[in-house]
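Memo to structure team: turn this sequence into structure tokens by end of day. - J.P.
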Amino acid sequence: MKKKSILDLKRISQEEFKHADKIPLVVILDNIRSLNNIGSVFRTSDAFRVACIYLCGITATPPHADIHKTALGAEDSVDWIYEQDTCMVVDKLLSANYEVYAIEQVENSISLTDIKLDKNKKYAVILGNEVKGVQQSVVDKCTGSIEIPQFGTKHSLNVSVTAGLVIWDFFKQLGL
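Reply from structure team:
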């Protein structure tokens, strides 16, 4: 097996990305501290054509060298919006007929393995702070909560790993 070169991969340009079809998914980052996590979410969102990222609260915004370090330019291709108040973003998206899910361990959460998505609906997922998770006031406003099953000793996954799993699962169901 020969590894593919960058040219073999035939990726679209950033300009083509801006005009390309996106999956009906918005990612909301609720008070994410790590610039590397933010950059990684941008890069994953680029890979699977997420419609938009909302950066909320203390979440840093591009341009920033440490975001770029992991985003590798995806911060320029994926649309993003900064809003101070995550609850206001949730209200706005619910009003626009999005189903909004916190990615959080809560009572009556839906396992990521069990979620069934409708290609005719729009979705948003919220990833929370590395220590405190998604704010309770934000969870309270959501359509529901999605939990990633885990079987080890730790109670959570890294934000960027969580984003990768969730975005990939949504992409598999919503496709292009």
